[in-house]
């Protein structure tokens, strides 16, 4: 039976009880409107601990002033039903005042790795993410936490925070889940009109084109960028960025060499900003 906790105190009491029983906990932080991608995170979490906990919180501090905080899709009842079905034991679904009772004076910020890619277009976004994730880690005290590779930069930022702060939490990255035609699952896909949905496919196709070009021997990153860019333009997608970066540091690479690299892209499909990434 899923326990719905609205307060920090309820989660703490649950966690203390687990500790008494000698049980481990894996946390899956979410903003809700769950899709198959989220469900795969719960299943992954269950492989790493005795008990799976989740959070359902549309975190206001990670949205910029002109972003979609107010219209972000929500379906709390449906989300609870899905969590229950997946065997999640506790969900923390607080009001914003529970998480930020005294405003946002204390912030957690990872520099460097947050500056490029999504960090360029969404200043302050990752600070909001690391602030809320740090709070969730302190509230839940999980042994492990699972994040999707869909938000690849976010995953790397959190890994960096946990490493730099000597936090004893295993961060597990779970593979991105796609629709049959290749579109990466995202709660924001629900904003897409039928026509936009067709065009949105261009994002994964652009990354695939980059990957195929790498496999065919193209090593020059500028040439690879142009290949991906042309696919985006062909699908009426407005490129925010398409970059080939070191898979760990996320620093741009100029020539494909021995180290693993990843192609990350963000593009506007109409007014909707979508992101995707692929190992190349
Ligand atoms: O990936 C998300 O849904 C959010 O950024 C997270 C990690 C739940 C923090 O609000």
The CATH topology of the largest domain is Rossmann fold
CATH class of the largest domain: Alpha Beta
Instruction: Catalogue the unreliable spans.
Output: none
The share of residues in extended strands comes to: 15-25%
The CATH homologous superfamily of the largest domain is termed: HUPs
Number of helices, where a helix is a run of at least 4 consecutive DSSP H or I residues: 9
* Average pLDDT level: 97
Classify the helix fraction into a percent range: 25-40%
Structural class: alpha/beta
The CATH architecture of the largest domain comes to: 3-Layer(aba) Sandwich
Q: How many individual domains?
A: 2
Distance between the termini: 42 Å
Q: Name the hetero compounds present.
A: pantoate
The biggest beta sheet is recorded as: 6 strands, parallel
Overall geometry comes to globular
Description:
The longest helix is centred in the last third of the chain and has 22 residues. The protein starts with a strand and ends with a strand. It contains nine helices and nine strands. Helices cover 38% and strands 19% of the residues. The strands form two sheets. Strands 1-4-3-2-5-6 form a six-stranded parallel beta sheet, sandwiched between helices. Strands 7-8-9 form a three-stranded antiparallel beta sheet, with helices on one face. It folds into two domains: 172 residues, HUPs (Rossmann fold, 3-Layer(aba) Sandwich), CATH 3.40.50; 93 residues, 2-Layer Sandwich (Pantoate--beta-alanine Ligase, Chain: A,domain 2). Strand 3, helix 3 and strand 4 form a beta-alpha-beta unit. Helix 8 runs antiparallel to helix 9. With 280 residues, it is of the alpha/beta class. The site of pantoate (PAF) has 10 residues, from strand 2 and helix 6.
